[in-house]
Amino acid sequence: MLEGQLQVLNALDVARTQWYHFKAIAIAGMGFLTDAYDLFCISMVARLLGRLYYTVPGADHPGTLPINVAVAVNGAALFGTLFGQLFFGWLGDHMGRKKVYGITLVLMIFSSFASGLSFGKTAKGVMAGLCFFRFWLGFGVGGEYPLSATIMSEYANKKSRGTFIAAVFAMQGMGILAGGIVALIVSAAFERKYKPPPFNVDPVASIPREADYIWRIVLMFGAFPAALTYYWRMQMPETARYTTLVAKNPRQAAEDMSKVLNVHLDAEEERVERLVRSERHKFGLFSREFASRYGIRLLGTTSTWFLLDIAFYSQNLFQKDLYFSVGWIPPTDEMSAIREVYLIARFSTLIALCGTVPGYCITVAFIDVIGRWWIQMMGFFFMTIFMFAIAFPYDHWNSKDHRIGFLILYGLTFFFANFGPNATTFVVPAEIFPARLRSTCHGISAAAGKAGAIIGAFGFLYASQEEDPSKRSHNYPSGIGKKKSLIILGVINFMGMLCTFLIPEPMGKSLEELAGEVDVDNAENYYKVIV
């Protein structure tokens, strides 16, 4: 039984907030901005792809992606992300956080750029190439989840740890916003240059050949923010907790953190040797000991993230379909292909500005004040309330006079998703598991979330189709409609509230205390390292 933390770990816990914290947030956060941009920008151009590659000459309506193609285009990156979270989460606990961190960034840069170079002689060839590169893009994105969260949690002091991890995750909101802004600027520039007429005026001229560049530029832009941080990411030292507790090199950890904190730290090699030999450092992920100590926690983190992402991704990926349903965007016949991209990007940017980004910012400000548990519970509660408020009187919101009310409720749903479980499900798994399994458990939790995202994306695509053929996408099968789909999402949010009871409150505690790797009674006073 340990009597207290190692000096180097205690030094990190009590360190005042300083420059290296902000540098770590910027480096990890830029990767997360790229993640969100790459995953969500496809929703800005999906309808454009349908017009470009599936419009039939002489048809009365512009083309749309066949349902199987839409599922593949939207789902390829999500499937890649799921596998990347599991693989790189495991790899981060075996090779080290820093080494794997560089691999994921290179993969993201290459795949993001290659996605825009998906060429082919047929529509099928172009879509196949796009799906291939977006799968590998997602694979790289998947690694960012466990590695960014684990690195930030292991660098942070315990007083502000939640704020720092949430600040990294808040860059997801900036990535979603950036996706809308880039699509807005690119489409506006092309529309000003080529001035295409609406489809019902001139079907051929409404889809200019040059519009093919729009989706390619939007997708390829995601490579640039990631490339900007590669050098700085490679200069970061490995986290002291990995170097000491997993790699068993306390001398290197003390040397690295002495430079970072500008204070002398002892290596304590004998104590580290006793520590790693103790029984609590020997059991594996699939052992009975792990199940008894951390099984309920892992069930809590996986179930809440799974349920959250069903609702969150179905809303994000298919916002554009709701815009058409409530009449914010005119019928497709009354627009050109470029105008449609512009309007979808404009409303997506508005939703991000009004609901998504403010929710992330308030979470950063209050997560170490209110606590993770209460923010998550409150978020799921209000998501349930507002989703039902949209769903049950859905016909009411279809009226032109009530569209502002719909915008407010829909924006509030996003606000409480982000000032709520979308942030906390990312933060908590990085805090409550032992160092040698931390990245793996975060990867498992995140992969459960992406499984929910896949269900939400695919399920909502099919389920949200109306029974009336005139109100659903061309050639799509009948579903239960948007109203019933939104009711189901409200029920899922309520289930997330119940699963939140499985999660402990990590606020104000050291990572070793949360993982049960230190004697709580003596941990606080064993070392007094004031940095």
From TrEMBL:
GO molecular function: phosphate transmembrane transporter activity; symporter activity
Keyword match Membrane: yes
Compartments (UniProt record): Membrane
One Gene Ontology CC term in the entry: membrane
UniProt keyword annotations, A-Z: Membrane, Phosphate transport, Symport, Transmembrane, Transmembrane helix, Transport
Domain Major facilitator superfamily (MFS) profile residue range list: 24-508
The UniProt record lists the keyword Transmembrane: yes
TM spans (from-to): 24-45, 65-88, 100-119, 125-143, 164-190, 213-232, 343-367, 373-392, 404-423, 443-464, 485-503
Membrane topology, record value: Multi-pass membrane protein
Biological processes, Gene Ontology terms: phosphate ion transport
Family: Belongs to the major facilitator superfamily. Phosphate:H(+) symporter (TC 2.A.1.9) family.
Name of the molecule in the record: Major facilitator superfamily (MFS) profile domain-containing protein
Native species: Chenopodium quinoa (Quinoa)
Species classification: Eukaryota, Viridiplantae, Streptophyta, Embryophyta, Tracheophyta
